[in-house]
Amino acid sequence: MPEVKSYCRICGTVCGTRLRLDEAGEILGIFGDKNHPLSRGYICVKGAQGRDLYRAPERLTHALKREEGGSFKRIALADAFDEIASRLRQLIVRNGADSHAVFRGTYNNQESASFHMIPAWMKAIGSTSTFSTITIDQSAKIVALGRMGAWAAGKQEFCDANVWMLAGVNPLVSNWPGFNSVAQNPALMLKDAKARGVRLIVIDPRYTETARLADVYLQPIPGHDAVLAAGMLKIILDEGWHDAAFSDTYVEGLARLRSAVSGFTAEYVAARCEVPQKLLRRACSEFAEGAKRGLVVTGTGPNMTARSNLVEHMYECINVVCGRFLRAGEEARQQIIARGRTPLHAQVVAPSRPWASGRRSRVRAVGLIGGEMATGVLADEMLLAGDGRITSLIVQGGNPAATVPDQRKIVRALQSLELLVTVDPFLSETAKLSHYVIPTTMPYERPDIAVAYPYPFPFAFAQYTPAILKVPAGWEVVDDWVPYWSLAQRLGLKLNYDGIELVSAERPSAEDLLRILTRNSLVPFDAIKRQAGGSAFRVAPQIVRCAEEGNKSRFQVSPCDVVSELLEIRKEPLARRERHPFLLISRRIRETMNSTFRGLPSTKRKFPTNPIWMHSDDLGTHDLHAGDIVTVTSDHGEIRAVVAADDTMRRGVVSMTHGWGRVGVDDPLDGGSSTSLLISSDRDVEQINAMPRMSGIPVAIRRCNPEAPIYPRSAMPREPCPR
Ligand code: SF4
Questions:
Q1: 492-544 pLDDT per residue, tens
Q2: Ligand 1, residues 10, 31, 51, 174: which to mutate, most atoms within 8 A of Cβ?
Q3: Residue 43 C-alpha to ligand 1 middle, in angstroms?
Q4: Contact between residue 399 and residue 595 where contact means Cβ atoms under 8 Å apart
Q5: pTM of the predicted protein model
Q6: Atom 2 in ligand 1: which residue has the minimum CA distance?
Q7: CB 300 within 8 A of CB 138
Q8: Cα 262 from Cα 257, distance rounded (Å)
């Protein structure tokens, strides 16, 4: 039976895979590649079971056009492109270039050719209305860099750290490679790290799979991350455990930061976050006392909670005052060799607050975040009448109707568009609202090289994969970048693709585009291509250089807006939650990623719905049982959900997985429950990036079924606490 090597492109972790094919070239099985330099044999359940989607009956095989009554009819792809181009031309002439928007979903991050095609398309149109999932995920990190500055040579790396602190991130489930986290084969990575003596500190309101490996574990009340991080900073600074020499040279505003955190005493923080003082001090000493190397890294937990920008700033301050950066003469191993290299200097990139200049949203004057419009204002930008209203939108590899907070509003906004096009292999909740749906190939049906989203690999790794599967005859599906190229041709627009003009009227191949992206690669494209299964290439080590002549930039750790917010939270009274006694936090599961993979048989078997997970003591106190259906009420909305028991939860805290539920259908037994209905996009929103509060939401829980559980308890997953 033929077997070929490739890599998984469901998330950015880039796990090496072996595909076993039948005689007809169809996938019989997907397995981890033991020889893969990054993943060393690991693949998650999505990577292994994803094969079921390739020939699933629900897969779109032809373009669709929505009819008057809402039903879809098949349309030839070329006709669809003609009609979309013609409509776009009218709308842009009438409403201006910025009235055209693109929303990039998570899937776009793994498709190198299309990831780089969208900026080319938007530039050609002249629109700055690009939105993505980044700004409803961890955009607080972008805000922190903009307010504080960054270190040009990068941060210390996991491979030679002796301590690592994970705040609200659970790599054993999320596998996320960005932001210096533990990603590829996380269990093995953490096991190796523990064996070489790395001390692990985990902060999470749930006793997660990762927390079970921690040397120090803090389980604070959700939503108090800023208080906790400010308290940790105070302890570190008071004890003199920070890197004073580094701070003296590179940090501005340290005295003001000290004063701003002075009220966050260990007693106060312990009482407010409900963590033992002793453990709080121990976490600080483990992280900062003595000759330590390693980072504090945050995930979606703190980035989706209240005051997420402040939280991220505070945690990042810990890294800064402890000087956890690569210095001149050290080797920077993290890189993307296929994209080339620029010299790294041991110096600060000064804070620049880029959102304060350039385009501002009509909604709360929110500026551009990482060069994009904030997704928190997307719905209002479509709904708000007047100049600049977004009237046409292409959704690429995403599903905002299911995932963007405040579902009723985003659905109303999508329905208000004059042109909505979804580019997706399935009829997602967003596709169902669209005027046109363009069906795409799926990852193993197209060639790729792992250079899409700029997540650096931990060493000089690169991998090319050819297209492994043939698209069945008669299907009219295209790679994700093709719609943009086809529309540009029809509109007479020139595309500048990653700095190269695409001048030919003939459609490039995917490989042509990949060659452009890797034209500065340290290893020639063809050499990468020859290494089936990817390789750690021998390249000259990247050594950090001294600061450039005259560079005197410093980190700004205590800008005015940060200090006033710190003082504000210090004055807040302790929260009383009589109306909403529980705090709902977000929860990732291995089986799904945002709204995708819900329909896989393996997911349905394990998770027939997305339950609301509660500690069994809370179940007992509230006379609830696994399998009960409850209403979950926030100050914004109400959903119904099925209860499941989970003793890893903190008492008073409940969790649910987002991206579930069917639009307009309130039936937790049929499609699950949408947590986005509980989230307001108008209140509890961050100022700079319009990030809604998506975790740590106060909720009330009430049983719907008066008698016995409606749903068989035996069908519900259960998570016992191993402590
Ligand atoms: S972690 Fe899972 S989904 Fe992500 S690349 Fe690996 S196998 Fe694919």
A1: 999 999 999 998 889 999 999 999 999 999 999 999 999 999 999 999 999 99
A2: 10
A3: 6
A4: yes
A5: 0.95
A6: 44
A7: yes
A8: 8
How do 448-449 and 464-465 pair as beta strands? antiparallel
CA of 554 to the centre of ligand 1 (A): 38
Euclidean distance between CA atoms 272 and 666, whole angstroms: 36
CA 445 to ligand 1 centroid distance, Å: 17
Q: What is the DSSP string of 398-429?
A: --HHHHSSSHHHHHHHHHH-SEEEEE-SS--H
CA-closest residue to ligand 1 atom 4:
11
CA distances from 91 to 98, 132, 393 (A): 10, 22, 11
Domain 575-715 class?
mainly beta
Counting ligand 1 atoms within 8 A of each CB, the residue from 7, 8, 30, 600 with the most, and so the one to mutate, is 8
> Looking at residue 178, what is its pLDDT?
55
Give, in words, the CATH class of 154-336: alpha beta
Position 60: which residue type?
L
Gap from CA of 297 to ligand 1 centroid (Å): 21
Expressed in angstroms and rounded, the spacing between residue 16 Cα and the centre of ligand 1 is 9
Interatomic CA distance for residues 638 and 654, integer angstroms: 15
526 CB burial (10 A radius; 0-12, 13-18, 19+): exposed
Closest atom, ligand 1, to C-alpha of 43: 7
CB 256 within 8 A of CB 262: no
So where are the chain's domains? 154-336, 575-715
pLDDT tens readout for residues 82-111: 999 999 999 999 999 999 999 999 888 788
What is the distance between the alpha carbons of residues 514 and 529, in angstroms, rounded to a whole number?
Answer: 11
Q: How far is the CA of 9 from the centre of ligand 1 (A)?
A: 7
Pocket test for ligand 1, best of 40, 43, 172, 600 (most atoms within 8 A of CB): 43
Q: What does the block give as tokens for 631? A: 């209403």
Beta pairing class for 535-536 and 461-462 = antiparallel
Pinpoint the alpha helices (H) of 277-366.
277-288, 300-304, 308-321
Cα of 35 from ligand 1 centre, angstroms: 16
Q: Which residues contact 718 (CB under 8 A, 6 or more apart)?
A: 626, 644, 645, 646
Ligand 1 site residues, Cβ closer than 6 angstroms: 8, 10-11, 13-15, 43-44, 46-47, 175
- H or E element: which one contains 85? helix 77-95
